[in-house]
């Protein structure tokens, strides 16, 4: 089957940035797997917007995440630090398996539960200054500082360094200038290289020392340890920030649902899956490319092409979730793909504990 092809990159349309879901609906209705132009340089990729097709693609070993392999014979003027460009997200088994074996225990339900008193204290500290009736920038005053504080605590990053580390992490995603992005990657990579080197050289029982020991036992070398630490900070920080912002915005736009959660906070754990489905913190998953010819959803994908899986679109697929544009707190949304699926599913999925009652907040 040959899918219809848009003439321009639909993911760069200003209307997409304002509200991606009408664009996703049009693309999915046309064909859930289709070739689209990417950027302005005449390049193309395959975009997957259907839920069944996305779930299949997430588990297909012919779709590689090894970015170094894809770009090996393609010229580039980028200068990302290796800790950012070569990490667990950009690898396949067996390298990915070694990294994930170390990363997964960091986010077990038990470990997250042990951090709950600290999480609650941080939330209370961040919201103490909020005054009833006064306007608050939720992103700046909670959604940004909370996850970076949690992850830095998990890794044992000294408190005086956390604000600067958050600034560098934010620049990786928000800067439109690739030189700024590359420079931020080196600041993060260099900082974490020094931090890991100090932990390896000095005995201790702190979180970073535990991570270093886990990496050594998991056969990760120094550079791989640095890349894992960088991934935890960068990926965990941004996605959690997006989720907090998206979830609260959805509730503000659905005051009846918001009031219901206020009246009965015990409903919150079940509601989190629906909030993750309704407005995914990751609209398009990280880079994949086809290593051989394959067919997904009736569409032929040749070898050597980037493949973009869109959880944001898959989570609004009416074939999986009836009336997908409706926020329904009673819906069973556990099949959402906001954390991905398969061997690359986000190891931080238990964070902040979707099945657990979260810390209290003033709203």
UniProtKB/TrEMBL annotation:
SUPFAM superfamilies assigned: Cytochrome P450 (SSF48264)
GO molecular function: heme binding; iron ion binding; monooxygenase activity; oxidoreductase activity, acting on paired donors, with incorporation or reduction of molecular oxygen
Signal sequence segment: none
Region Disordered, annotated ranges: 344-363
Annotated Pfam families: p450 (PF00067)
Keywords noted in UniProt: Heme, Iron, Metal-binding, Monooxygenase, Oxidoreductase
Comp. bias intervals (Pro residues): 349-363
CDD domains in UniProt: CYP107-like (cd11029)
Similarity remark: Belongs to the cytochrome P450 family.
PANTHER family: CYTOCHROME P450 YJIB-RELATED (PTHR46696:SF1), P450, PUTATIVE (EUROFUNG)-RELATED (PTHR46696)
Protein name: Cytochrome P450
Species, as recorded: Streptomyces microflavus (Streptomyces lipmanii)
């Amino acid at each position: 089957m040959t899918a219809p092809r848009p003439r321009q990159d639909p993911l760069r349309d200003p209307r997409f940035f304002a509200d991606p879901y009408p664009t996703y609906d049009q693309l999915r209705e046309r064909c859930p797997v289709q070739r689209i132009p990417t950027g302005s340089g005449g390049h193309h990729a395959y975009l997957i917007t259907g839920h069944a097709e996305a779930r299949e693609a997430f588990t297909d070993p012919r779709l590689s995440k090894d970015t170094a392999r894809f770009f090996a014979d393609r010229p580039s003027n980028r200068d990302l630090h290796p800790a950012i460009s070569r990490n667990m997200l950009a690898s396949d088994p067996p390298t990915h398996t070694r990294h994930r074996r170390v990363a997964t225990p960091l986010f077990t339900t038990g470990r997250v539960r042990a951090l709950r008193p600290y999480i609650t204290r941080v939330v209370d500290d961040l919201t103490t200054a909020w005054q009833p009736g006064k306007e608050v920038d939720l992103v700046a005053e909670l959604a940004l500082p909370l996850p970076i504080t949690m992850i830095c605590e998990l890794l044992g990053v000294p408190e005086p360094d956390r604000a600067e580390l958050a600034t560098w992490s934010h620049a990786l995603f928000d800067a439109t200038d690739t030189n700024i992005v590359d420079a931020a990657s080196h600041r993060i990579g260099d900082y974490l290289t020094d931090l890991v080197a100090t932990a390896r050289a000095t005995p201790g029982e702190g979180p970073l020392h535990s991570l270093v020991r886990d990496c050594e036992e998991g056969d990760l070398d120094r550079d791989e340890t640095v890349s894992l630490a960088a991934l935890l900070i960068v990926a965990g920080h941004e996605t959690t920030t997006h989720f907090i912002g998206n979830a609260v915005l959805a509730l503000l736009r659905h005051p009846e649902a918001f009031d219901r959660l206020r009246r009965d906070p015990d409903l919150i754990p079940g509601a989190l899956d629906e909030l993750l489905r309704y407005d995914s913190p990751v609209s398009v998953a990280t880079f994949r490319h086809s290593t051989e010819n394959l067919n997904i959803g009736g569409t032929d994908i040749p070898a050597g092409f980037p493949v973009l899986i869109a959880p944001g679109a898959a989570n609004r697929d009416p074939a999986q979730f009836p009336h997908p544009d409706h926020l329904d707190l009673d819906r069973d949304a556990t099949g959402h793909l906001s954390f991905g699926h398969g061997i690359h599913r986000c190891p931080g999925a238990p964070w902040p504990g979707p099945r657990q009652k979260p810390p209290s907040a003033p709203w």
